[in-house]
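explain this chain.
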Amino acid sequence: MTTEQVIIEGKKIKIDASGVGHNWKAATADNCPANIQEEIAAEIIDGGKKTAKGYVASNGQHYSW
């Protein structure tokens, strides 16, 4: 189990366990795997699809930064 928070492009990544923006916590390698980190990095670099409820990644999880 990894407890170190994922940081991408200098931004701390959070995950919402509730899926509706009510339970944000630090994303770790356990709940934000490498392929999702790459997806989020692309969104951050491109100006992203971040919304008020966060970004919904291809794994269906909500992330914010």
